[in-house]
């Protein structure tokens, strides 16, 4: 069982990456005004959800850090990532005289912020934008005029250093004729800066943080075995997994120290570095399962990952090398007699420590009769293109993994 990335000592690679400016540290949001200034922003619209928007422990430091650069707070984002929400945010952006955006919270708020930036630059009627999304599944990104986005994550999902955004339509909330789910991808959607403040991460409810953490953790796992892995992403993913595993096991044990949140936040920074590039992403098999299980069912993304990841990895290691030695190194189990088994157990241990579901029957997902349709969705997911060389799953293979997870 070998693949072409198992031994990379002489493998050529090209790494093109233009990330956001990264700022990390306790209370680093105190410098939001200077970060905004560095990216030519004079007044910012804060885009967030209602829960975060009502959490003083988050919003007070954000507003103090922005000072006179705060134009207004728009606290109306939802997990649905609706185009209608971005259209409402556009009105707030214009009315407040903003010229920059600060996204606070999880991936949903950042996705809405990115769609808002596209709307600001497009200067098109919302109806025309909605019609394009319904017809093509995406929205064209203007060459110029996008306001800078500064992201302030409060979860561990790892949605911050990306150049993509999900978006949905709903005829009841925006001028379209039908409901669709789509996405935007363009290097210009990479935030100008991301401020990782462990003190804000610590304000997030444990259950929310646990689910988001499994999503971010699996990004590191997949980055190592992805078809387009590079020595750069190997290095950052390995260190990220080491930090995240250590921090998540302590978090699962109930430890609430500054060290835990600082360790988790540093791991979050590293796990994302280089995984979303102009030439593609390193996300692969596990995330394809996550998409297949969450796009048409109410199961939460992190819960889907917790359930399926050990079984997907079992299947992967049975077919290809899957960089098992690097993964074992990252998890501190390099001396194990069977590195593949040790890696699967390490991933399962993290899910168990986070008290996440371990069986598909225990989440609000598909019935066993629906597995063929889920398998088709998994196989058609764009992330499957990043599967390791030599891994060519069939629908029967995917159904068997789902059945094992049941």
UniProtKB/TrEMBL annotation:
Q: Which EC class does it fall in?
A: oxidoreductase
Which keywords fit this entry according to its UniProt record?
A: Oxidoreductase
Quick check: keyword rRNA processing in the entry? no
**Which Gene3D superfamilies does this one have?**
3.40.50.1970, Dehydroquinate synthase-like - alpha domain (1.20.1090.10)
Q: Where is the Fe-containing alcohol dehydrogenase-like C-terminal domain?
A: 212-406
InterPro entries tied to this protein? ADH_Fe/GldA, ADH_Fe_C, Alcohol_dehydrogenase_Fe
Signal peptide (residue range): none
The record places domain Alcohol dehydrogenase iron-type/glycerol dehydrogenase GldA at 19-198
Q: Which Pfam families match?
A: ADH_Fe_C (PF25137), Fe-ADH (PF00465)
Q: Name one GO molecular function term.
A: alcohol dehydrogenase (NAD+) activity
- According to the UniProt entry, what is the EC number of this protein? 1.1.1.1
In Swiss-Prot or TrEMBL terms, this protein is called Iron-containing alcohol dehydrogenase
Q: Which organism is it from?
A: Haloarcula nitratireducens
| Source organism phylogeny | Archaea, Methanobacteriati, Methanobacteriota, Stenosarchaea group, Halobacteria
């Amino acid at each position: 069982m070998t693949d072409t990335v198992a031994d990379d000592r002489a493998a050529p690679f090209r790494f093109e990456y233009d990330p956001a400016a990264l700022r990390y540290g306790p209370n680093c949001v105190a410098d939001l005004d200077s970060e905004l200034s560095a990216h030519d922003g004079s007044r910012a619209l804060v885009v967030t959800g209602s829960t975060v928007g009502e959490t003083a422990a988050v919003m007070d430091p954000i507003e103090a850090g922005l000072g006179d650069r705060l134009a207004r707070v728009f606290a109306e984002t939802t997990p649905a990532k609706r185009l209608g929400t971005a259209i409402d945010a556009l009105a707030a952006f214009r009315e407040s005289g903003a010229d920059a955006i600060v996204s606070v919270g999880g991936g949903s708020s950042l996705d809405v912020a990115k769609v808002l930036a596209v709307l600001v630059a497009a200067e098109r009627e919302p109806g025309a934008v909605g019609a394009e999304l319904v017809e093509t599944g995406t929205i064209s990104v203007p060459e110029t005029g996008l306001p800078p986005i500064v992201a302030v994550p409060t979860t561990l999902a790892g949605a911050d250093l990306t150049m993509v955004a999900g978006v949905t339509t709903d005829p009841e909330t925006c001028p379209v004729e039908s409901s669709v789910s789509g996405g935007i991808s363009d290097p210009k959607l990479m935030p100008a800066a991301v401020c990782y403040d462990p003190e804000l991460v610590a304000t997030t409810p444990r259950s929310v943080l646990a689910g988001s953490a499994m999503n971010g953790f699996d990004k590191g796992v997949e980055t190592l075995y992805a078809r387009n892995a590079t020595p750069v992403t190997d290095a950052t993913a390995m260190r990220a997994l080491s930090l995240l595993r250590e921090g998540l096991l302590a978090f699962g044990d109930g430890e609430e120290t500054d060290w835990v949140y600082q360790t988790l936040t540093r791991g979050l920074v590293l796990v994302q570095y280089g995984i979303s590039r102009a030439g593609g992403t390193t996300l692969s098999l596990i995330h394809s399962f996550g998409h297949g299980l969450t796009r048409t069912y109410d199961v939460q993304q992190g819960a889907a990952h917790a359930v399926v990841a050990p079984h997907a990895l079992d299947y992967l290691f049975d077919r290809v090398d899957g960089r098992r030695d690097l993964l074992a190194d990252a998890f501190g189990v390099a001396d194990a007699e069977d590195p593949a088994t040790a890696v699967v157990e390490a991933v399962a241990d993290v899910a168990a420590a986070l008290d996440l579901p371990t069986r598909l029957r225990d989440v609000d997902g598909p019935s066993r009769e629906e597995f063929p349709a889920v398998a088709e969705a998994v196989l058609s997911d764009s992330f499957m293109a990043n599967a390791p060389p030599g891994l060519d799953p069939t629908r029967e293979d995917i159904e068997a993994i789902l059945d094992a997870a049941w």
